[in-house]
Amino acid sequence: MTKLRSLFEGLMKRHIWIIGCAVFAVLFHLLTGNRLLMNALATGALWIKRLLAYVLSVLPISIMEWTIVAAVIGGVIYIIIAVRDIKRSEQRWRILYRRVSFVVALALTVYCAFCVLLSASYYADNFQRKSGLYAQKSSVEELYRAAEYFSVRLGEIYDEVERDENGVFCEDISEMFDDSTEIYEGVCEVYPFLGQESVKPKKMLFSWVMSYLNYTGIYFPLSGEANINVHQPSMMIPATIAHEMAHQRGVASEQEANFVEILTCMKSGNPVYEYSGAFSAFINLGNALYRYDKEAYAQLWYSLPPEVLADMQANNEYWQQFETKAAEVTEKVYDNFLKSQGQELGVQSYGACVDLLIAYYNEYGEF
What we know:
The protein is an all-alpha fold and 367 residues long. The protein has two domains: 2-123, no CATH class; 127-364, no CATH class. The chain has 16 helices and three strands. It has a three-stranded mixed β-sheet. A hairpin with a 4-residue loop joins strand 2 (217-220) and strand 3 (225-228). The longest helix is centred in the first third of the chain and has 32 residues, at 92-123. The radius of gyration is 23 Å and the shape is globular.
């Protein structure tokens, strides 16, 4: 009798927890239009994530990476134990219910944590509202001028970075990570709200898996970590670091984080980061220009030094090998996630940073 009472009380507590989490999730989504509330949640969450990132920075490993590994291994073990207990027990449906209800409670708990630590940021004041710099429609001529600026800048700084015997970028990756804690000083002079103590990003042990899934980096809100794929072409790693660190500073939108990434690199005072930022900017602007004026794009392309073209080719060849079904599925899933968070452009919002680049160039004339 005591055992049954204990079981009943345990399930009651679990039911209350599940109902509480479900109610919270529903209320959260009903209130996403309340900007004041979302700002408060996002601000509080940002402080929590900053603290987590700072505390966990003493560990050289990526907590996100090993959390995923532990979750996969733990999930398999849990299923095996559950199947064993169900087979052995005469009350199979009760055991099955207990196991399933635990999984539901855990899943809802994690989902609610993501609502506060990640989703709220998508509905709070964004970078454009805070900075006063807004993405606007622009002419092809304006697009060309912005792309030309970065093509010229690449021609000026391409020889300031180390290159291998084939002329391809080959700077030391560890130094890029060591320098990362200082790269935001310049951009914070322009946009002070981006200021906070920088925490060094984490190198992903399973970076090749990220490449296979078409990820260059991941910001993990449950630990506040910026996780970087170090298997990708090294000329893109500094820009990726700046991008994921933008998420650490509360820039949730991918299009805005992409813009902040480039601006941060250009104002870093670090030639390695500046080259990577200009490289990323030219890819974004060049891809947009190519869709509207192929001749103008070709003119800029062939004006680039052979070393920059070698980097472009190396980058393209690397990602071509990962054009797989898995990458397509991953992109589709992430696209749907972004849209579910109010980011209507989905994955295409990465290209929309072009409008911010043009707007900034039109206002300041340089980066």
